[in-house]
Amino acid sequence: MGNDGQRLPGGPPDKRVARHLAFPRPRVHRLLTQQRGRLAAAAALRPIGGALMPDNVANSPLLEVDDLRTTFTIPTGDVKAVRGVSFTLDRGRTLGIVGESGSGKTVLARSIMRLNLGTNVTTTGTAVFEGTDVLTRSPAEMRQLWGTEMAMVFQDPMTSLNPLVRVQRQVTEHLCRHLNLNRSEARQAAVDLLREVRIPDPETRLRSFPHELSGGMRQRVCIAVALACAPSLLFADEPTTALDVTVQHQILNLLSREQADREMAMVLVTHDLGVVAGRTDDTMVMYAGTVVEHAPTASLFADMRHPYSEALMRSIPRTSFPSHTRLAAITGRPPDLIDPPTGCDFSPRCPYVQDQCVNEEPPLVETDDPTHRLACWTPVGSPEARVAFEKNLAAGLPQAVAVDVSTTRSPTGGVDG
User: Where does residue 23 fall: left (phi above 0), alpha (psi -120 to 50 degrees), or beta otherwise?
Assistant: First the structure.
């Protein structure tokens, strides 16, 4: 906000006032609303929860992405990192994006936030956020959105935090810039934010440098920085990758609680299907820069239809396995995104591959359930998949043999037993 509040593409200041008033945060709430009251006194007098934005915006999805493509030009060619991704995200909902490293998850999130800057980057398509296509906005306009309307929690807190700057300055920077809080108000708000993300003795921690904190505490600081100005959309880019299992659970619980308390939409990026289970409303599986399956999370786990989704699930170790059981790895490697294969990108690694898979690219279409979309010619569990698997197994295809040896799944994709 600040002196440029009227120019924000995210909407008028009164809308932001109402959003902060929508959830109780005693001290932070008071400081934020007092300052916003000075900037938009008339708006602050309007009823809480009133219609503060046009009906066509309030009733539309918070984020609508259509045919998003991001390409990096390097000396060896054009890396097509994201290829034609489309999805919508409603207010207050959580979307999980799953896939192995190199599938385009992080690039997709950074493309929507316009963080992939450089002369060698090309992004096309549309990303409509609260009625505005952010891909058409200048970097200066995006700086007004970052923090106040959309924010990101990055993978590695040690590299996303400035090692030469104390925690207090890194947490209060957004508050001073966007909300015009003075130093004393910003510090008090920072103390409450650290307390809110369950950092003990927050007054002392504000004077610490990042290297003086544990990995879990650094990630909590990053979450506090992202939530400082109460964005309506949060991207959590593999926020638990560098943390141990116990701390991972705590961070995920923290994100879920903050998302619910603030009625904030969240995009949770991860390579672990176990992370999205029970924590997201919808899940989108990405492979080689494209969406291969998209469904409500409960529906996806109950009925996985794409061979890649099944392979990700099969590779998860289970406590029911005997000791020293060999993990079921996905055979082969992800494709070269400079020169992707014809047909289905997953066909060289798929145990159900047929000639059509090699020659024709499957479109992302609805299944018998309109909320479940799939890009596959031989869906898991179909008669075509069983026939193709038996044929490939008889031919000694490595990916079919690997599935047969693993004994964790039947040829139709169902869990044995």
Answer: beta
Cβ-in-10-Å burial (0-12, 13-18, 19+) of 143 comes to middle
Amino acid at 412: T
Flag whether pLDDT at 409 surpasses 50.
no
Q: What confidence tens digit (pLDDT) does each residue in 331-366 have? A: 889 999 999 889 999 999 999 999 999 999 999 999
Residue 288 CB burial class (10 angstroms; 0-12, 13-18, ≥19):
buried
**Tokens at residue 138, please?**
């200048």
Short-list 26, 395, 390, 403, CA closest to 195: 26
* Alpha-carbon distance values, 303 to 289, 293, 390, 410 (Å): 23, 11, 21, 14
- What is residue 159's three-state secondary structure? helix
Residue 123 near residue 68 (C-beta atoms within 8 A):
yes
Residue 55 neighbours by CB under 8 Å, 6+ apart? none
Contacts of 401 (CB under 8 A, 6+ apart): 393
Query: Residues 265-321: pLDDT tens digits?
Result: 999 999 888 888 888 999 999 999 999 999 999 999 999 999 999 999 888 877 777
With the C-alpha atoms ordered 37, 39, 43, 48, is the resulting torsion angle positive or negative?
negative
- Cα 258 to Cα 260: distance, rounded to the nearest angstrom: 5
Closest CA to 223 of 153, 169, 291, 277: 153
Average pLDDT, the chain: 82
Q: Which residues pair with 78 in a beta bridge?
A: 73
Close Cβ partners of 202 (under 8 Å, ≥ 6 residues apart): 190, 191, 192, 194, 195
CB 282 within 8 Å of CB 294: yes
Q: Give the H or E element holding residue 359.
A: helix 355-359
**pLDDT range class, residue 77, cuts 50, 70, 90:** very high
Instruction: Name the DSSP letter for residue 270.
Output: E
Amino acid at 200: P
Question: Helix (H) and strand (E) counts for the chain?
Answer: 18, 12
